[in-house]
Amino acid sequence: MDPFSKLPSIFQSEILVHLQSEISIKKVIQASPSMLWHFVTYKKSVLRRIVNDILHEDTSGDLLRDALGIIYISDKASAKKYQETKMRVTMELPDTLEQDQLETLWRLFSRMITFIEDYVSKATSVYLPRAYLGIPDILNASGSYFKGQRLDTEVVKFMSLTSTERHRFLSAFAKYELFCKIYYPRKGFPEEWSTMEEQLLAMSKDSDLTMMNSVHEYYQSVYGALFAHCQESWLPDIPEPPKTEKSSDTNIPKSSRYALLFPDNTYFSAEAYEEDMEIYGRYLAHELPRFGLDCLSQILLFMNEATGRELILKAWLKTLSFRFCMPLTKRELRDYNRPQTDQRFRLVNCDELEDGETREHQGGTSIGNWSPPWLTFGKHQLPVYRQRARGLFDDDRLYPKYGNHFPMLDELAGTMKELKKTLAPNVERSRRRSQKWQDYWASRILEPPDQQCSEGDDAASTKGHLGPCVRFFEALSSKLPTM
Question: How far is CA 354 from CA 128, 351, 385, in A?
């Protein structure tokens, strides 16, 4: 029996508008013939209300303008035209969106929101190094998984965010995606890179650049999780909170005796897991995010479709090389990682404290290869903050109520000092990330992994698993994209 069949038409519309996302509505209309009929019959009005709700905070029209730009740019030729005609500035927004535009925008926003929910859930999780190892289920939005195991990361739904937070996240993801479309990764010469940097900076406000850095950091972490799936990586336990701090989570297991070392216990490093794959000099963790959601969605669907595809993905990754590609915005990343005031050598820890003040550090000039120590620690602090989506929420209500979610520079300095006491810290860090070494330390295997014969993965082939890179808001493909 269809429980929705007796509902008045207006109630059926309200349910569909409230569900909002493509995944949620598909589940309902597949289960209910009456809701399917209602959605097909009143699709235009339902989608118009959904898109209007999503764009409610978009008073400037920038979010809609960026979304329409993403839809417009379908290849390099349209990207060039969009850029040369300054279409983002000259584009006139339509007074009324037609049904095909509404459908496309709905799919675009819905699928983008699935990634936003994954980012928010991980950013506010109890233990980020564990949460970030999960790859998101973008087909059913059922959470994130690590090698078939559903992780216990609490899912934060998009609609649980405030309207300003929803707009902030969507704007950041849309703007990053638009830049990926305009500046599709390609080889070039230094003078071309310089021109591109100037154009990127001219198109963006400081707040936009800050938020896009966070999106880039999130995409890097998703690729890092994919790298971890391509090898025998360890899924760390959630450390027990100190006795002086009480946690409301009664399911926290006891942590391993050989827990992750710094910075892996604070920051999820995609570069570290890339090195663990023994794929060197490719800069995959940095460059792959610049292909945007088209590439990332396809890879995730490939991994979610069937088990045992890790070695195929690794074989595909080995075919990629970005040694001569330019960072998305080299100058901006440099300036953001080393924020300065108009006084040339005055370094500011730019992340605001809860009382609205900023912590500042005075420094001298750099001499030779020496630089003030807080530059080193700041190099860790900013990515840590980005992974926690600092500055994208209205307040701290979603963050854990215990522990230090946002370490300050002096705390990172102390942790780094302790790490240096470890013999060969980089080797030990890598071992702590390894499931084989964890098994050895737990006496589940008798022979040390470095004395075991390594199993080759040369037999894995990408044959039959490659396909064209499709747009993430159109028909889905579970083939690995040809690059």
Answer: 21, 10, 14
Rounded to 5 degrees, what are φ and ψ at 40? -65, -40
Which of 72, 46, 474 lies closest to 293, judged by CA?
A: 474
Q: Which long-range contacts (CB under 8 A, 24 or more apart) does 141-150 make?
A: 141/21, 141/23, 141/24, 141/114, 141/117, 144/118, 144/225, 146/225, 146/228, 146/229, 146/235, 147/229, 147/235, 148/307, 149/235
Residues with Cβ within 8 Å of residue 132, at least 6 apart in sequence: 122, 221, 224, 225, 268, 387
Q: In the chain, which residues have pLDDT < 70?
A: 185-207, 241-256, 322-380, 409, 411-421, 423, 453-458
How many angstroms separate the CA atoms of 2 and 281, rounded? 57
Per the CB < 8 A criterion, the answer to whether 79 and 181 are in contact is: yes
Give tens-digit pLDDT for 198-249.
Answer: 666 666 666 677 788 899 999 999 999 999 999 999 999 888 766 655 555 4
End-to-end Cα, the chain, rounded Å = 49
Look up the pTM and report it: 0.84
Whole-number Å distance between alpha carbons of 439 and 457: 21
Print burial letters for 279-299: b (CB count within 10 Å at least 16), e (below 16): beebbbbbbbbbbbbbbbbbb
pLDDT at 329: 45
Confidence at residue 372, expressed as pLDDT on a 0 to 100 scale = 39
Give CA–CA dist 399/123, Å, rounded.
8
pLDDT computed for residue 447 by the predictor? 87
134 backbone φψ class: left, alpha, beta (φ>0; ψ -120 to 50): beta
What residues contact residue 121 under an 8 Å CB cut-off, 6+ apart?
131, 143, 144, 153, 154, 155, 156
Q: Which helix (H) or strand (E) element contains residue 286?
A: helix 284-287
Are 123 and 115 in contact, with CB atoms under 8 Å apart? no
Is the Cβ–Cβ distance between 151 and 143 less than 8 Å? yes
One-letter amino acid at 166 equals R
Q: How far apart are CA 336 and CA 346, in angstroms?
A: 14
Up-side HSE of residue 130: CA atoms within 13 Å toward CB?
20
Give pLDDT, residue 242: 62
CA dist 65 and 71 (Å) reads 10
Q: Using CA atoms, how far apart are residues 185 and 393, in angstroms rounded to an integer? A: 30
